[in-house]
Amino acid sequence: MYKILIIEDEAPARKKLQRYIAQACNSFKIVKEIETVSDLKVLLSKTQDFDLIFSDIELRDGNVFEVYKDVILHCPIIFATAYNEFFINAFEANGIAYLLKPYSFEQFSNAWNKFIRLKGDSAPNYNELIGTINNFIKEGQENNVEYKDQFAIKSAKGIYFLKVDSIVCFQADQGIIFAFDETNKRHTMPQKVFNEIELLLDPKKFFKINRSEIVHRKFIDKLERYNKNILSVFLNSDRKILKTSQNKTSDFNSWLGI
């Protein structure tokens, strides 16, 4: 029986993992489900009695690599995330597969079968792991990703089209996603999962500054220090003021080239 730890802060994603695991394996036990970085840190300080970890990366209180960099892990990890920039971090943290949300059962099954193969080996096949990571990165660089240039928005009168270039920022609030345009008008987006919005946007133009807000580079007017690790972001001639999360500030500065 395989003992499995799930690290995921979104209930639908946890249910999907559970369903896929049950389809792929007849004998397993989910020993724990973790939703925060702080809980993960506590758990790994007490036990690593797992055969496999399924791990998201960005949780509600930070990034899991804050924990993984400080512990010696004794089991492999299959990462399941909406972020495509952590391949190397994943490999360094015992990652054997990288599932990019939304992933299919076929993709999950390939990752699971790799775990089974490695579990049967006397030693991990690191050449295979390195090749997998390198190929995944190469494929991502070579794919010509088409990002949205407009969104179809439903209204009481019908459907209208919101141009992406006119969107100042996106905000998620109690399960509803809003886009704010340059006139500060609010538009209700058809997407229900915030990470889906991020995947549809050009990462050179848009940046997710915290768990529920994405900003458009061209509408950033100025930044001010809110506290030691958080920035106030002034958008659209100061009509909107948002704040970075602590774990996003450094990456945000790098994205801006400052």
UniProtKB/TrEMBL annotation:
- Molecular function terms from GO: DNA binding
Keywords noted in UniProt: DNA-binding, Phosphoprotein
Give all 4-aspartylphosphate modified positions: 56
Q: Locate the Response regulatory domain: which residues? A: 3-116
- List, alphabetically, the SUPFAM superfamilies matched: CheY-like
| InterPro entries named among the record's database cross-references | CheY-like_superfamily (IPR011006), LytR-like (IPR046947), LytTR_DNA-bd_dom (IPR007492), Sig_transdc_resp-reg_receiver (IPR001789)
Question: What is this protein's name?
Answer: DNA-binding response regulator
Where is the organism placed in the taxonomic lineage, from the top? Bacteria, Pseudomonadati, Bacteroidota, Flavobacteriia, Flavobacteriales
